[in-house]
Design goal:
With 765 residues, this protein is mainly alpha-helical. The chain is built from 43 helices and two strands. Helix 11 runs antiparallel to helix 12.
Amino acid sequence: MRLSFRLPLVLVLIGATLVGCSRDPNVRKQKYLESGQRFFEKGKYHEASIQFSNAIQVDPRFANAHYQLALTYLQLDQPQRAYQELQRTLEIDPNNYKAHVDIANMLISSKNFKQAKEQHLDLLLQQDGNDPDVHMAMANYLAGTQDLPGALQEMQKAIALDPKRPELYLNLGMLQFSNQQNGAAEASFKRAAELDPKSMNAQKALGSLYQRQGRYPEAEQQYRHAIQIDSKNPDPRHALVLLYMAEGKKTEAENLLRQTKQDLPDNSVGYRMLGDWYFANKDLDRAATEYESLYNDHPKDLVVRKNYTQLLILKNRLEEASKINDAILKQYPQDDEAMIFKGQILLREGKVTEAADALQAAIRNDPDNGIAHYHLGRAFAQQGNYPRAEGEWREAIRLRPDLTEAQVDLAAALNRKGDWSGLYQTASDIVQTQPQGVEGYIFRAVAASNLGRKEQAEQDVNKAIEVAPGNSIGYIQMGSLRLTDKRFPEAEKSFQKALELDSHSVDAMNGLMRTYLLQKQPDKAIDAVKAQIAKAPDSSAFYDLMGTALFESKKDSRSAETAFRKSIELDKSNADAFLKLGQVLLSEGVPDQAITTCQQGIKDNPRDIALYIFLGELNEQRQNWNDAKAAYQKVLEIQPDNALASNNLAYLMLQQGGNVDVALAMAQTARRAMPESASAADTLGWAYYQKGAYATSIDLFKEALKKKPNDPTFHYHLGMAYQKTDQPAAAREQLKQVLKISPNFTDASTTASDLKKVISDLGGI
């Protein structure tokens, strides 16, 4: 989640100013309105929003209060609430033309051009065609719909109506600037500055124009002039910082921000700029240190408290984050951002259900909060409820198209389920939102490769390397493309380059190992990971990879066991290493040790699904039926829709005399989620068998056997179903096949001896 730079609505009354107010509602609402206007004029927008809200509580149809509250929300950067208040204003007072202008501009900004024109601009031009603001809004509409000549014509109309108004020239210049009419834009900005020499915005606009043209000294001069004009405004200082960054003057940028902190000790935006800059540059350590200082110096600044909380969460300092956030919630129980922070903290603590509850409460409070939907999606994903996670991420993107984090998580989900067309579209959206980011190009390359669009995949990988040459991910994907084409030397080169850039890259190391293993060179694969371990000796994942290669390719279980134990020693949260160590121990004939290893892995990773499922399977093999059931039930507590756990638990219930109806429902769930699984078909068939639906069960057993023709249990089930449907010859043939495949076959309810007797009763052996 990004740091929030919005000042949230304070939900406590500033009661001292209200004592003694008249009981007359008209007098009271007017006093609230006037008080709010005074706060607004002083730039105290929190307090203004409270007073305007108080006026509305006295009279819900007080149109002027709704309008003033809308303007306040715009200043607080809460556009959704501003839009709602503007709508309410117009419901009460349809002739409030200023509200029509403001809502039209908001719709234009969000690209809702048709609604802006048909519901507002047409009316405004018809009712008040001599208002410069109406023509300026129409100009913005025409510019948004790519009619630049019409937009410029509307701006000329606006200027003709009020030729001494500097902001009209400023808007004209912005239109010209956005369409790269640099000379005309410069003239317009200069005219705005002439009309209002104290216009900081005109000077800043000139600076932006010069910066785009590469006229950096002139741009700096304009920004510094803007700072002189409005020394208490942090905006031109921010613009100058961006200029320094464009010039590669990072030291100058940092020094300016330090100076800004000193110059604007009472301006929250100003003294926060240094910490925010560290955060924007992904220097979380310095950002956290800076915000700790700000928190000590400005303990009542709500934005500081919130931003510091977010940084503490990102640094995984959850106890400190929770303490600050709890204090915010105690003061403002309905604060949306604090409720979201609570969800984030609970999510990181592994309290997924509680996190989902907190995030859903935030959404009930503000249904249009894209950040809340994004984190709720993450909670659902941790629960294994991927359809709902995907739905939440799509809603987050709808509400916040710029929320790249939601787009990336959605792309990862689509990649995981192999929806290549969906991934291609989502990745393209990421590229459009962040053309200088690497994730969109990589995801689109993956999608294009799987869709057979090799040329597009190649282009995107090359673009990823171009925009982020120091990031290993582009070279990893290039290696994967080369590996798909069996261009092994080039794949090897790409993966090695990725490891040079990031010596801890598990994906790069895994790709390099696969390159060797596909060429049947396991020794080279093992030597490669050993060499990388020498460079990154603290990498648990590398020992995990080495153990995997030793066990699967070299069949060296002893050496593999040593590698997995080292992996676990380095990182007890590496659940994969626990799982594979358990598999090695099982192969060595010590299943009890495998169970103990699984149990320890679960203790260190209490929400890892794979460990519980393996533990269940191990207990099944040991005929520890209750322990097996408990393991599968735990999976379903964590991930209610887990198909494999549903299937295995359903089968155990059917074998152990459990509730057949419950088992049938679980088997149906597993079958829907795993339609290609032979085991799911067999389990559902066995449930129907126990319900007496033998014909249906036969079809499912046949399907299972088509996929796994040598499974003795499937033959046994089909034989029993044939017996129940008076098909003795077919039953005898299936049961004989069981003993042919597994002479010592045993099941929860039968043995090989029992089968021989049944076969004899059916007329042969």
